[in-house]
Write a structure and sequence with these properties.
Layout: H1 5-13, H2 22-30, E1 32-37, E2 42-44, E3 52-66, E4 72-78, E5 83-84, E6 99-112, H3 113-122, H4 124-148, H5 153-164, E7 171-173, H6 178-185, H7 189-201, E8 205-208, E9 211-214, H8 217-222
Antiparallel strand pairs: 1-6, 2-6, 3-4, 3-5, 3-6, 7-9, 8-9
Helix pairs in contact: 3-4, 6-7
Length: 229
Amino acid sequence: MLTDPLLMATLRRHYLFDGLPEQGLADVAAHTSVKRLVQGASLFHQGDPVQRFYILVSGQMKLHRLTSDGQEKLMEIIRPGEAFAEALLFNGIPFYPVAASALKDSLLLSVQNAPYLRLLEEQPKLCMALLASLSVRLHQRMNDIDNLTSSNAHHRVVRFLFQEQEAGGGVVNLDVPKRLIASKLGIQPETFSRILHRLIDAGLIAVEKRRIEILDHPNLAACLDRAAC
């Protein structure tokens, strides 16, 4: 049961719960627990029974799958304030299709599925908030699919840079290791690094540690119309 006042306030502010009356919030809190993970620790494994969804309060989580050849495929990076596994409330899948583990020391709120489903039946506003969340996820997945079906690795990297630039300002801050970004793009880490170096040599980007600045938007965009940059 969740009792910490600060975490209760976090739950109250989250869009999946902010429409609840006090009694409804108390019902959620009665079926919510706190989970602390150290960096590298697993939250659940691919194939574990689905019983809960989560809200990340602090830290950073990754969702990933194992491919048929035993390789880890990054699906999503979860950042503070984001919920995950909530889509499984509706699709009837009894097992988690991905694994979740901590990229950094993390604090999470763990919410039982069944009590929240009962609240959805009583609170239409919660349903709308959840639909909005799922719509955002769907849009992200469509972008990922578009990128993965690009003709070559160069296009995937360039599209990644344009998608991740902050407010269109031409700056990308990599808050996860490059090997994980490469995994999400479906390429090897050395391929990702090699493409970045080519873009640097072409004067299209500048890289300083984990900060990437797009120097030439038009010519970088033109890479998408060529086989390589």
